[in-house]
Design brief:
The chain has about 450 residues and is an alpha/beta fold. The protein has nine helices and 35 strands. It starts with a strand and ends with a helix. The site of calcium ion has 2 residues, from loops.
Length: about 450
């Protein structure tokens, strides 16, 4: 058994530059709040305690993050990062090590954090630093002649020599909890911002002969924080690019890796092809050989092998069987389940509908709360009238039925196996199997009828 691991996530700051009513860490990256990305990385380390320091935005943050296993430390007012960590101290497991993260730095890899924790467990202070082309605004890492880290100086407190340093503090560090609490007690706010700087503990540590071991991320993106909408958008594009690269590495064809958005989890079989501007949300599973056309939105759907989804489809909480053909312009709403080889064509909306093998609903239809059997043909413009203004009712269409165009099925109603409905039927009673049922006003022709003419045309000279 190793000693306890505490993780403190700082999230009390104002986020002024976001110009938002929403606490900054609740803004989403790839559809998930920033703080949830940080928590996901934290969870990978299997900590004993996670404590989030919150303040600005009040209870909205704890209310939004529904995690009974984490503790919340209120920091009010916000007097700096050192003061923030002080608020977390009463919530920490004694002994062991503490890792400090920022709630607005979403992409740090668990591997990087694990390395920091390992160093801290060996008794040193692990500090994540990075070289930056433009270090403006960041705390600078001051090293001695031997190249050892001596202290951190904040940008606003730095002299011109220090400002020239391009190695910056990411803010992420790990150290023994016992040492952390002792040094926090000695922080003062005698600096340019009159804040309690967490970074001052580095100077205290080295003056007591403690070792500070700097670690570096795999790339700058791992430590990029979000302070503005611009940075948010930049990080989003960066992250999406990264997800696209990973998909291609796994054998997925992307028409353009820069025009793909994954906001959740996308799992693909072999030889999947995805055209431009598709959005995948929640859990999406695409089977072998699936083709997704341009401009589709798929949320929580399972797509069987060999399915073709043509452009401009919107699919939500649906299951699609093998070799089905969907769209263009189809909308599958929650509860839709299509068996193998079903065809759903353009301007068709399905909701809570189960459709059997090889049935076709190809044009301009609404089929909701319906059970459709095998090899059924639903003609253009067919509508299930499932709602009577108060309750929803089911329509049942049995195997091999043929529904003529422009038919309304007033539920609850059943179309028997092999039945045919004439075009334009308003079906209010069950249609028996194997027979033709239709409701239709008789066609007539009025002999001698003349088309009216405009009054103005009647004026004579
Ligand atoms: C801090 C570091 C700086 C580092 C930079 C990296 C200090 C003194 N400085 O600077 O060395 O280069 O991060 O981005 O630590 N927060 C609180 N309570 C507070 C103040 C901040 O919870 O009272 C939180 C913020 O919500 C944020 C994080 O701490 O998540 C960092 O705060 P920020 O104001 O961005 O830090 P800087 O002063 O820019
Ligand atoms: Ca910052």
């Amino acid at each position: 058994m190793s000693s306890p691991l505490n993780i403190v996530i700082l999230a009390a700051g104002k986020g002024t530059r976001m110009k938002s009513d929403l606490p900054k860490v609740l803004h989403t990256l790839a559809g998930t709040p920033l703080v949830e990305h940080v928590l996901a990385a934290a969870d990978q380390l299997e900590p004993d305690r996670i404590c989030i320091v919150y303040g600005h935005g009040g209870e909205r943050l704890p209310a939004a993050v529904k995690r009974p296993d984490i503790t919340w430390a209120l920091q009010e007012p916000q007097l700096g990062t050192g003061h923030a960590v002080q608020q977390a101290v009463p919530h920490l497991a004694e002994g062991g090590v503490t890792l400090i993260l920022y709630g607005d730095v979403p992409l740090t890899r668990p591997e990087t954090l694990g390395q920091l924790v390992m160093i801290a467990r060996e008794g040193a202070i692990a500090l994540l630093t990075v070289q930056m082309a433009n270090p403006t605004g960041y705390g600078r890492i001051v090293r001695n002649a031997q190249g050892q880290v001596v202290r951190i100086v904040e940008h606003k407190d730095a002299g011109s020599e220090e400002l020239a340093i391009d190695e910056v503090n990411t803010g992420i560090l790990a150290l023994e909890t016992r040492k952390l609490t002792a040094w926090l007690d000695r922080l003062t706010n005698a600096n340019a911002q009159a804040e309690y700087y967490l970074t001052d503990i580095i100077g205290m540590a080295t003056s007591e002969g403690e070792r500070v071991i700097p670690c570096h991320p795999a790339g700058e993106w791992e430590v990029l924080g979000v302070n503005s909408r611009h940075q948010m958008a930049e990080l989003e594009r960066y992250y999406q690019r990264h997800l696209a690269e990973a998909l291609m590495t796994r054998g997925v064809s992307l028409a353009d890796p820069a025009r793909l958005d994954i906001r959740g989890h996308l799992e693909c079989g072999r030889d999947v092809h995805i055209d431009i501007n598709c959005i995948f949300e929640g859990q999406v599973l695409l089977g072998d050989g699936v083709k997704v056309g341009a401009h589709c939105v798929l949320r929580d759907v399972e797509v069987g092998p060999g399915v073709e989804i043509k452009p401009f489809c919107h699919l939500e909480s649906a299951r699609i069987g093998a070799r089905a053909v969907i769209g263009p312009y189809a909308r599958l709403r929650p509860g839709t389940a299509l068996d193998d080889e079903v065809h759903v064509g353009n301007f068709v909306e399905l909701k809570n509908a189960q459709v059997g093998f090889n049935s076709k609903i190809n044009h301009l239809s609404y089929v909701g709360d319906a059970t459709v059997g095998r090899k059924v043909n639903v003609g253009a413009g067919t509508i299930t009238c499932n709602y009577d203004g108060a309750n929803k009712h089911r329509t049942i269409i049995e195997d091999e039925a043929f529904i003529g165009s422009d038919t309304q099925l007033v539920a609850p109603v059943t179309v028997g196996r092999g039945a045919t409905l004439g075009a334009g039927t308003t079906l209010t009673k069950d249609a028996p199997a194997d027979q033709l049922t239709l409701s239709r006003a008789k066609q007539m022709t009025v002999p001698g009828w003349k088309r009216p003419t405009k009054n103005s045309d009647k004026v004579t000279k």
